[in-house]
Amino acid sequence: MSTQPQQPILEVDRLHHEYSAGRPAIDSVSFTIGSGELVSIVGPSGCGKTTLMKSIAGLMRFTSGTVRLRGQDVNDVPADLAMVFQDYGRSLFPWMTVEANVELPLRYLQVSKRERKDRTAHALAEVGLSRDSDKYPWQLSGGMQQRAAIARALAYRPRLLLMDEPFASVDAQTRSDLEDLVAAVHRKHGTTIMFVTHDIDEAIYLGDRVVVLTGAPSRTLKELPIDLPADRDQIETKATSEFIALRSEVALLIRQAVAESGHRRTPQS
Ligand SMILES: Nc1ncnc2c1ncn2[C@@H]1O[C@H](COP(=O)(O)OP(=O)(O)OP(=O)(O)O)[C@@H](O)[C@H]1O
């Protein structure tokens, strides 16, 4: 696994945002994501992770600093970016089948109907939903809806996939399964992923690197390379001394960040 990005897809430089003048939500956040990397972003509650995500996705204009995707300043929603949100209940259209939901963004690309169908079928197979393609989102469990949202992102083949606490609303077993799905997709396709999470174990388990943010207004506190073998296992990897040491290091950094910012709420560890 890479420790330093060779060829940045995403460059965030001294990003600063104030929703109201003089009250920054983000102080100064800088990091890069190299091609094919999965970078986890972790920090205390309310530190500005969603603001950061929206700034990168071109969904809001930040106060100062730069965000570059493949060398281009982000001023609008980039075409080659996909997002998976926590709120799966609102990310799929309830009146469309799973297949139609997955295929929808492909209609905005210059690809033939046949390729749209092929990409959709492959993506659904990859997330284990081939047999549910004609169901509606409300006929699926939360975990299955999140699989459908991941399939939609996969079929689109984005240069950068942004995942904003995607598994925060599903049960523990489903969460583990979905984490392994993301890890498998990342390994197989080399998809570049920015993964925002409150969960320290999840950040380390999935990440090639972990970027730790301070409490609000956030700054980049530290970047940690995750030198664990690429093939990871929920039980065995988390029992290794390397994983346990990383978990302690990140937890201590978060505690330091919370203490510095005076925040009371802490992420799960
Ligand atoms: N639209 C808004 N208008 C004003 N203030 C906002 C707005 N959105 C967020 N904030 C403030 O900016 C700060 C950062 O919020 P943000 O949602 O980005 O943090 P977060 O790290 O994603 O939070 P959480 O961990 O609770 O999900 C918070 O103090 C929040 O109250």
TrEMBL record:
What Gene Ontology molecular function terms does this protein carry?
Answer: ATP binding; ATP hydrolysis activity
Q: Pfam families annotated for this entry?
A: ABC_tran
**Keywords from the named record:** ATP-binding, Nucleotide-binding, Transport
> Which InterPro entries has this protein been placed in?
AAA+_ATPase, ABC_transporter-like_ATP-bd, ABC_transporter-like_CS, ABC_transporter_ATP-bind, P-loop_NTPase
Q: Which residues form the ABC transporter domain?
A: 10-240
Annotated protein name in UniProt: NitT/TauT family transport system ATP-binding protein
Please tell me the species this chain comes from.
Sinosporangium album
